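retry 2 of 3: previous attempt timed out while embedding S-adenosyl-L-homocysteine. Reduced batch size to 1 and resubmitted. Inputs unchanged:
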Amino acid sequence: MISTFFRAAWPRSGLADRRGHQCLQAASGSSAPGKVYLIGAGPGDAELLTLKAWRMIQQSDLVLFDDLVSEEMLAMLPAHIEKRYVGKRCGQHSLSQQRICQLLVEEAQSGRTIARLKGGDPAVFARSAEECDALEQAGIDFAIVPGITAASGLSAWCGIPLTHRECAQSVRFITARMQSAESEPDWTSLVGNQTETLVFYMGLNRLELICQRLVQHGMDPEMPVAVVEKVSLADQQMILGDLTDIASRVREQSLNGPALILVGEVIRHRYPVSPALLNTIRA
Ligand code: SAH
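retry 2 succeeded.
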């Protein structure tokens, strides 16, 4: 499906910039410097894109998007804009982060306006810093449009508050991409704060380990846990349990992700929202 969005690269010609660097010029002949918008696309539901994001996308020549940008969102993008997949999950089409940075710089130097569309919020586990560094070094103007991070989408679509006067004074977003024991989070500090909601990103295949570690470090084994896949999309799935049984419950459902793991007393304060009410425009 994603390959539908591939197009042949825009024809370009070589040209040296003010600093004497080799850069590329768009076939249109425009030599004005390009610019880049790093845009948060939200968790999936296309209407969660902000008005500002939508306006910036419409002004762009090229959209570079990740695999977490939903097909629903991509289908909504204006037909005249070139769309290129630069995700890192789908085998043959994947680009290294370094190559994505290069591509942003090259395309902007050719005079194009680029919407760099990322799932959720660009400031949350999205490697925006590397892209901003590359753009800054190349002297390219860029701006950031925030998006709704997956945890906020989960909260709305599942009716689970992230903070609550009675039990959660803070919320912590944690990456579960632990390459080695050294890169594991500071479990003691995660467990030490009894009034904090924990949200693990990228943790689906480490769910069991996360639960074990939290219990080993002293968290109540009956602490509620919610695992939510495909937040805000039509096939969203939520599985509830506690630290002792959530891993086996999730295994029975064979989820593929993307999914969040939310741990905290706030789950006991879940309100009965009807996300179907939000679907009326789409229907
Ligand atoms: N910038 C993104 C996070 C990117 S890290 C944001 O702000 O949301 C990728 C992880 O985000 C996934 O592994 C998953 O844990 C989470 N995620 C992103 N979209 C999601 C969705 N629709 N449903 C559940 N989890 C999601």
